[in-house]
Write a structure and sequence with these properties.
alpha+beta, two-stranded antiparallel sheet
Length: 192
């Protein structure tokens, strides 16, 4: 080998050793810089899921007449009509936001909703539905039609409503209106 080649190899070897020494002595090389925050100074977090809302109409009673008065609400949309129907009934249980009379005792719990292909909605309520219900045939009739009309109005597939209490068929709601058959909606009871 020629002297110039040996000198070139020595210089390259020293340069390589020098660079390796700098690399290892500086903590493993360069540091990874963090991504600068977005405008506003915050890192973007996980995006909340989009909740789709659906407008529904509930029917409550008025003290001035024996008619059912509409009240609009928004419920969380669901892929199943049973879940949406349950949300409508749960909103009825919560009561009116406009000072109308609530048709259901506040202690009532909805246990289950089942919809058949033939258009019958089965509503299964807790025992408080009948035990805490105010007596009288008018009060019972009002409760039934607030439920039936609210469901049939919002769900075109609901043609009739059958009411159960604690999973069982009950003879009457609270002593007057029979619950042994399904109820058809009566939209003539709705105030115009």
């Amino acid at each position: 080998m020629t002297r110039s080649r040996i000198l070139l190899l020595a210089v390259l070897s020293l340069s390589l050793i020098l660079l390796a020494g700098i690399f290892f002595l500086s903590g493993g090389g360069g540091t990874v810089k963090e991504r600068p925050p977005e405008l506003g100074g915050k890192e973007p977090g996980p995006q909340p899921e989009t909740v789709e809302l659906k407008k529904v109409t509930l029917f409550f009673l008025s003290e001035t007449d024996r008619l059912l008065h509409p009240e609009e609400r928004e419920i969380v949309s669901s892929p199943t009509p049973e879940r949406e129907a349950a949300r409508v009934v749960e909103e009825l249980i919560k009561g009116s936001r406009q000072g109308l009379i609530s048709p259901l005792p506040a202690e009532t719990r909805l246990r289950q909703v089942y919809l058949t292909k033939e258009g019958t909605a089965y509503l299964d309520f807790s025992r408080e539905f009948s035990e805490r219900h105010p007596s009288g045939s008018s009060a019972e009739m009002d409760t039934v039609y607030c439920l039936v009309n609210s469901l049939a109005y919002n769900f075109k597939s609901v043609k009739r409503v059958f009411i159960l209490v604690n999973g069982d068929e009950k003879e009457t709601l609270s002593g007057h209106i029979g619950l042994t058959k399904a109820f058809l909606p009566d939209f003539a009871m709705i105030a115009r």
